Amino acid sequence: MVQSVSVTVREVVFALLRDVGLTTIFGNPGSTELPMFRDFPADFRYVLGLQESVVVAMADGFAQARGTAAFVNLHSAIGVGHAVGSLFTAYRNQTPLVITAGQQARSILPFEPFLYSEQAPNLPRPYVKWSCEPARAEDVPAALARAYFTAMQSPRGPTFVSVPVDDWDRSCKLLPHREVSVTVGGDASMLARAAALLSAARRPVLVVGASVARDAAWTEVIALAERHQAPVWASPLSSRNSFPEQHPLFAGFLPADREQIVARLEGCDLIVVLGAPVFTYHVEGEGPHVPEDAALVQL
Question: What is the C-alpha separation between 167 and 34, in angstroms, rounded?
Fold first, then answer.
């Protein structure tokens, strides 16, 4: 007779985090999070922050430096509220974060207890790609797996899962190992058309944004600029360095102003925007968004 192995939500979650390489946890715990850390695994590291906005900011930088996701644990509703400013930044940075927050015990949620979050999945919106509070304790590991894979899909960004305090010791089933591709490819015919436009252009310019750095395309962008002798502008308010500023082809930083952008790009016949919006503005403007005789390609 084969006996099934009894495992807890906590054990399955730590196995999942280990499987996807999230063995560093950034957090500021309170009473609704403490059961998660009972029998804390020796191969995990906990990075304590004294306020939740700092916790998310640390995780943001850590994830960007590693090029993969980071795991965050916040304290119930008030902790998520404290973290929203840094959460907004991580969302704009397209940083993959898996964020969890404690919730009061399921048995007392109808009584609106102290420290509960009335609409936990809605609290961090719209600055998360996906959020939920699982209907059952045994669904927590699957929800966290979805949160991780969603965060890692392009465009990357934070996700959120609310976990009631009494879920961690409940029994559940092991999750099967999964591999989900995070590669996104361009349309081959459209890329060929873009390449043809660039080859035919007489006065092309490149505008580079943060996604060039996120995708580690620094070397390729330099080679592209040098091949076509195209001036390179940094996109307005870009959060990452995507081209060497001492390079002879570096033209400067585009302002977040429509008329000034058009003035700086005047005279070009093709604008190739790589890894950036077209365009990020900070003030109102009038007139065209690009010079009148210029074509534009955005990747």
Answer: 12
